[in-house]
Amino acid sequence: MKKLFVLAAFGFLLTGFLSSCFHHGNHVSITISDDEDEYEMDASYQKRKTHAVQVYLNDLLLNSSVTFRNDSDEEIVLADNTTISLRSYPGHLNIKIDKTENPEESCEMIRVVCEDLKDIMDDN
Fold first, then answer.
1. For residues 124 and 110, what is the distance between their CA atoms, to the nearest angstrom?
2. Do the beta carbons of residue 60 and residue 113 sit within 8 Å?
3. 17, 61, 88, 122: least buried by Cβ within 10 Å?
4. Contact between 68 and 57 (Cβ < 8 Å)
């Protein structure tokens, strides 16, 4: 009886471990923080979506003199003098904008960009 219990417990643990390994690749986690002073999006997503995220950010946010790269952690000044903090590496993106230092229109633009990024990251 004791052997059967140990065998069953081992089987449940092994099943749980294996199922977590297979589902991890499709995991998308997006957190939006919006308070008086700052808007922030922190996202973890499938690494295979990194190129699509990069292309979107290059096309929408950045002018031709600045390019969005993997493994970057930088403050970026856009053509309209909007300053954002951008940290990225394959499968992860963090964007912050200080609402007290940027115009309301810029903050709204970043909000829309983050909504679009959510769709890109979550698209199967």
1. 23
2. yes
3. 17
4. yes
